[in-house]
Amino acid sequence: MIQPSNSLIVAVVSRTMIPYLQVFALYVIFHGHYGPGGGFQGGAMVAASLILSRMALGGERAEVQFRSAWGSPLGAIGALLFAAVGLVAVFFGGEYLNYAYLPLPLDDPALLRSYGILFIEIGVAIALTGTLVAIFDDLVEGHEDYD
Amino acid sequence: MFIQLEVTLFILLIAASIVALQVRDLLAAVASLSVFSFVAASLVIAMGAVDVGFTEAVVGAGISAVLFMVALYHTPRRSED
Known about the structure:
Oligomer: heterodimer
Radius of gyration of chain A: 18 Å
Number of helices of chain B: 3
Largest sheet of chain B: none
C-alpha cells in the first residue's frame, strides 16, 4: 500500500487537480468523434488522474474512488463492449463495426455512425483506464515503503 | 508555424535527450525523458497533428514517466555506466 505524501503542497494541488482532470477526460472522450481526442486519450487521462491520487493521497484513500481489484475486470469489460458493438452490427445484417446497422432509434445513417462510434470510444476508454491502473497496482504491489 | 518556435523546440528536444542519456541519477533521467516527450508533443502539435500530439502528451509525459518511476523503485537509483 502506498503511503500518503508528507508534503502539504503535493496533497493540496493533487486534491484540487484530480476532479478537473477527470471532468476534462470525460470531455475528451465524448468530444472525440468530431474533434481531437477520443477514447484512448481520455482513458489514459482518467488513468493518469487515478494514478496521481494513488501516489499523492496514498493507497487507502485512492481505493475509495477506484479499487485495485476493479482494474483487470474493467479492462475486459471495455474490450468486450468494443467487440459487442461490432457483433451487434453483424447480427443486424451489416459488416463488423458497420455502425449504420446498429439498432438505435435514428433514421439518418450519418447520425447512426456518429453515435455508434461513441460506444467504441467508451469501450476503449474503459479498457484503457482499467488496464493502466491494473499495471500500476501490480507494479507497486507488495512494497510497503512507497512514499 | 513560426520557424523560430520550431527551432527552439528542436533545440530543447535534443538537449532533453542528451541529458536523459548522460545523467547518472536515473530519476533525473526519467524526468528528462518526460520533458523530451512533452517537447515532442508540442512539436507535433506545431506541425498541425493535434490528435497525435495529444496522445504523445498523455501517454509519453503522463503514464510512461509514472511507470518508469515505479520501475525505478525495484532497481538501484544510480546508473553504473
